[in-house]
Specification:
The complex is a heterodimer. By secondary structure, chain A is of the alpha/beta class. Chain A has one domain: 3-Layer(aba) Sandwich (Rossmann fold), CATH 3.40.50.2300. Chain A contains five helices and eight strands, in the order ββαβαβαβαβαββ. The longest helix of chain A has 13 residues. Chain A is globular. Chain B is mostly helical. Chain B has a domain of about 120 residues: Four Helix Bundle (Hemerythrin (Met), subunit A) (Up-down Bundle). Helices cover about 65% and strands about 5% of the residues of chain B. Chain B has seven helices and two strands, in the order βαβαααααα. Classes of the chains: A alpha/beta, B mainly alpha. At the A-B interface, strand 1, helix 1, helix 5 and strand 7 of A face strand 1, helix 1, strand 2, helix 2 and helix 3 of B. Strand 1 of chain A pairs antiparallel with strand 2 of chain B, so a sheet runs across the interface.
Chain lengths: ~160, ~170
């Protein structure tokens, strides 16, 4: 895997579990990331987002005080969002299909299942760097293009005017 | 509006916005160098927290057992106790695999999903949760790492059997 110098990238880690935050911080520091801010709730994450600029946010979904969906909604949908196109990595132990689809439809950039390792986390970061997708705005969605693959033999109903 | 009859008019209005990809401008590729040694260093940094995890694991087992007891003794507190049990299991399933205890993650995941499927928590449901806590305690007592080998698999099968016995398909 290509090595990137991540020293100039700033991360916001959102998780209500302090030890989980320590794990993520430890992994990022091991990758030479130096700009790391922590938030222990969705509410605190939104305060930090108003105060500072970040390059990537890594957020848990299930938190006691304000869940991760609220954070994604505020980033993608709020008129006062400081950066509606901020890359969002959802980090969750809940890997039920409907949860992943819900996070995708809320506008997450990447999903990272717990337990996390340096390899899985770095892979998501590299995907964001190398494979950034265009954003799509529809009547009920704003976020990264949910089409990751181009299907040249797709035979189903067309959903976009340009299809 | 497209004249193509296959296009759903409700879904066809969309705008594509180019992603400036600010992170790509900041992250400098280091050509010819592999990420392997950096990832090894990052995993080592976390492996150093293994002792802390094992301490947390022991504490959480006791918390889980205590909350199940509270729920049994005081039905008014069941909701509060289940929230604490769910949170504790959720944290364990998310962390244990990182430290070489995927069996703990599996047992905790089973407990979380069991809670999510229930509407009410009476003696039966608390007993099933108690079996999960017994499983977690056994993993610790037997120092079962990885998938726990034959004993670990027997433990998992036992938990699944208890769930099946008490939960209608």
């Amino acid at each position: 895997m290509q090595l990137y110098d991540l020293r100039g990238i700033s991360f916001l880690i959102v998780d209500d579990n302090r030890f989980m935050r320590r794990i993520i911080v430890g992994l990022l520091q091991g990758m030479d990331v130096t700009e790391i801010t922590e938030a222990r709730s969705g509410k605190q994450a939104l305060e930090k987002l108003r105060q500072n600029q970040f390059d990537v946010i890594i957020t848990d979904l299930e938190m006691e005080d304000g869940n991760g969906f609220g954070v994604i909604d505020a980033i993608r949908g709020d008129d006062e969002s400081p950066d509606p196109m901020l890359p969002i990595i959802v980090l969750s132990a809940n890997t039920m299909k409907h949860t992943i689809l819900q996070a995708r439809d809320a506008g997450m950039t990447e999903f990272l299942a717990k337990p996390v390792t340096a390899d899985t986390l770095y892979r998501r970061i590299v995907t964001i760097i190398e494979g950034a997708r265009s954003f799509v705005r529809t009547g009920n969605y704003f976020g990264p293009d949910r089409r990751r693959k181009s299907d040249t033999v797709y035979m189903g109903p067309k959903r976009r005017r340009d299809d | 509006m497209s004249s193509d009859p296959q296009v759903n008019p409700k879904l066809s209005k969309f705008e594509i916005i180019e992603n400036p990809n600010k992170i790509k401008l900041k992250a400098k590729p280091l050509p010819g160098r592999s990420a392997d040694s950096m990832l090894k260093k990052a995993n080592s940094a976390v492996a150093e927290m293994s002792g802390d995890f094992e301490l947390i694991y022991s504490t959480e087992i006791e918390l889980l057992a205590r909350e199940i007891d509270h729920a049994r003794q005081d039905p008014i507190r069941v909701g509060e106790a289940i929230d604490k049990i769910r949170n504790s299991l959720h944290d364990l399933r998310g962390q244990a695999g990182t430290f070489g205890f995927p069996l703990v993650s599996k047992i905790a995941d089973s407990g979380c999903k069991y809670i999510d499927r229930q509407d009410n928590f009476g003696i039966v449901e608390l007993t099933v949760l108690g079996v999960h806590v017994d499983g977690l305690r056994a993993v610790k007592h037997e120092a079962l790492r990885g998938d726990g080998g034959p004993l670990g698999q027997k433990l998992l099968k036992g938990i699944v059997a208890v769930i099946k016995k008490h939960e209608p398909a």
